[in-house]
Design goal:
The complex is a heterodimer. By secondary structure, chain A is mainly α. Chain A has one domain. Chain A is built from eleven helices and no strands. In chain A, helix 10 packs across helix 11. The radius of gyration of chain A is 22 Å and the shape is globular. By secondary structure, chain B is an all-alpha fold. Chain B is globular and about 80 Å long. The model of chain B has no long low-confidence stretch (mean pLDDT 80). Classes of the chains: A mainly alpha, B mainly alpha. At the A-B interface, helix 2, helix 3 and helix 7 of A face helix 2, helix 3, helix 7, helix 8 and helix 9 of B.
Chain lengths: 305, 329
């Protein structure tokens, strides 16, 4: 029965124009990240050529090859920003639609007249969200590999593909958190807009507010692919830095930078420990969604603003 | 006649204000904005207080030592408000879109739009009244945020802003109201143009995402010097003169890059607000006319956007059917 609920949900999402538009936007942003990476590659080549000419004219030796300083996967570093921004909002929408549509179409009232338990229903919905996100991220990974081939003019090595796989795996886990937030708020509020905006409020807090308190990162700093926390010389940050492990946006970005090798390396165990809070939050939210489905009154359709 | 018209617009504006204040979601988003802004400014002010104490100790020692030339303070209390304006740029825009969405969806869901339109009121007056009411709400919100920020600088940073700085802050304050009013118009326009209000909200939030987050980030990423950690030109052993010489070969590239940034309304608001609040060190010594000259293009863009969206809002209100069609949520 879980698979029936999940396949019905996947079919419903496939028919949603809003969802398809959001999906197209995400794939387009992945392509844009690749295009920016290719542009970056070209810019470095052209600047390097000009620098060689300029230094030669001044009788100076040629500068070091800048590609020796540039990590191979850095051309995809913008994805580390787009996933928490665009991807997380898409995941919120996906989670929201999967619950809110059942309410507004009246399906929520009908479905429990069949032999479907609430646990199976909740698990089917979560499975559908997880599968949808996996499909989206697989498409994004394919676009990323194509970008690497175009930019570097060679096929990526197995190690690079492995790193990309790990990065998109972590992104899947991170986005699942937001899909569950979207489901949770839709189950908590009868008003569709209130549910959507509450989910967005949660996204704003996770993406901007918590990193501000734990690491002094202003919103513009949060748009940087590399998280650069403030020092802990201030008493305030000595205290709030203790909460950094639960700042999942920072943990995601730092772990991603490690996986893509775009930041100075740290022990593997440290990176694994950064993934743990994201996984814990996902498990807790999944449990919360299960509980909320048990308690939710599906006999009332949503209405209001 | 003009008086009647004014009375009708004011009645709609009062209705808009009351309804906004009663909205739970708006109160929650406002709470997030104020707490985050206060947190940001308090954190910056705490660090500022210690730097100010260091400067005052240096100044006292220099005076006691009989020094005739004392270095002026490099500190700028207004720059501590950077976080406040960044949060208005990001979260404030979402609040404004929500406000615009609620303006339209509220009347649709409550089925009060046919009732309002049955009174002797034009769609132009309805749009003007709604916008005026929203501007009151936004002014209250920005004033509360600014007051919290200025008090934090004074009480935590131990430095109060002077009348000249207050004047510049007022200009940034007005820009913030215009910025949010424009996003309000976007939210109301997108919702009024959509049969299903939630789809309009999502479309407006999609535009917010592109204009506020994606375009500035792309413009920044394309900056030639940002291609390597620590700067590409520094990695190539080139100083500022070398960088300027090389960039002359990248005129088209730089035009495209700056055009992408120019397409972002948020970036123009940011440039203006940062210039007024001493965030950029090179602007701190400039007089107000010089500051205006430096950010003249941003001012023009802000005014263009601020003029275009209310016009679009008026048109969408005119086209909106008085009796809601299809799904209303």
């Amino acid at each position: 029965m879980i698979s029936t609920v999940a396949s019905q949900q996947l079919l419903s999402l496939r028919r949603q124009r809003v969802f398809l538009a959001a999906l197209g936007m995400f794939v387009a942003m992945t392509a844009a990240a690749g295009l920016l990476g290719w542009s970056s590659h070209n810019t470095i080549v052209r600047v390097y050529d000009q620098a060689v000419k300029l230094l030669a004219a001044n009788g100076q030796p040629a500068p070091p090859n800048p590609f020796l300083l540039k990590p191979e996967l850095s051309l995809l570093s913008n994805m580390v920003v787009y996933v928490p921004l665009l991807g997380a909002l898409l995941a919120l929408l996906l989670g929201h639609l999967s619950v809110a549509d059942d309410e507004s179409t009246g399906l929520g009232r009908l479905i429990f007249s069949r032999r479907v338990s609430r646990t199976e229903y909740a698990m089917g919905k979560i499975a559908a969200a997880a599968i949808s996100l996996a499909v989206i991220l697989l498409a994004a990974m394919a676009v990323s590999v194509a970008s690497l081939v175009v930019a570097n003019q060679t096929a990526p090595t197995i190690e690079v593909v492995g790193r990309l796989g790990l990065f998109y795996g972590l992104s899947w886990l991170y986005l699942l958190v937001f899909a569950l937030v979207g489901m949770g708020t839709a189950l908590l509020s009868r008003r569709r807009s209130l549910a959507l905006l509450s989910a967005m409020g949660a996204w704003l807090v996770i993406t901007f507010t918590i990193p501000q308190f734990t690491s002094g990162l202003r919103p513009t700093a949060s748009l940087n692919p590399i998280a650069d926390p403030v020092g802990t010389s201030q008493r305030f940050f000595q205290i709030t830095a203790l909460a950094r492990p639960i700042s999942i946006a920072e943990q995601y970005k730092t772990a991603s930078a490690q996986i893509l090798a775009t930041a100075p390396s740290e022990p593997v165990l440290h990176t694994v420990m950064r993934v743990v809070p994201v996984a814990v939050v996902a498990v807790v939210l999944a449990a919360a969604v299960m509980v909320l489905v048990q308690r939710h009154d599906f006999s009332r359709s949503s209405n209001g603003e | 006649m003009a008086n009647d018209r004014r009375q009708r617009i004011l009645a709609i504006a009062r209705h808009e204000y009351r309804a906004a204040v009663r909205s739970r979601i708006l109160v929650v988003l406002l709470g997030i904005l104020i707490v985050t802004t206060a947190g940001s400014v308090v954190i910056a002010s705490a660090e500022y207080a210690s730097r100010l104490a260091d400067y005052q100790a240096y100044r006292a020692a220099a005076v006691a030592g009989g020094a005739t030339r004392i270095a002026p303070s490099p500190l700028a209390p207004l720059s501590l408000l950077r976080g406040a304006f960044e949060y208005i740029e990001y979260i404030g825009a979402v609040i404004a879109i929500t406000l615009g969405y609620l303006t339209v969806s509220r009347e649709r869901v409550n089925r009060t739009l046919p009732l309002i339109m049955s009174r002797p009121i034009t769609t132009g007056e309805l749009a003007a009244g709604s916008l005026l009411g929203a501007v009151w709400v936004i002014t209250t919100l920005v004033a509360a945020t600014t007051a919290v920020a200025v008090l934090s600088v004074g009480l935590v940073g131990h430095d109060w802003i002077n009348p000249g700085q207050a004047g510049k802050l007022l200009l940034a304050f007005v820009a913030a109201i215009i910025y949010m009013a424009t996003f309000y118009s976007l939210g109301a326009f997108a919702t009024a143009s959509s049969k299903v209000a939630t789809n309009g909200l999502m479309a407006a939030l999609g535009i917010w995402l592109v204009v506020v987050l994606v375009l500035p980030q792309i413009g920044d990423t394309l900056d030639a010097d940002n291609q390597l950690p620590g700067g590409l030109f520094a990695a190539l052993g080139l100083g500022h003169d070398g960088e300027v010489q090389i960039l002359t070969h990248f005129a088209t590239y730089e035009t495209i890059r700056t055009s992408i940034e120019a397409a972002s309304f948020a970036k123009h608001f940011e440039r203006f607000a940062f210039a007024m609040t001493d965030v950029k060190e090179r602007f701190r010594t400039l007089s107000l006319p010089d500051l205006f000259f430096q950010v003249r293009f941003s001012i023009v863009w802000i005014l263009l956007y601020a003029g275009a969206l209310p016009i679009a809002l008026n048109r969408s209100f005119r086209k909106q059917p008085a009796i809601p069609q299809g799904e209303t949520q």
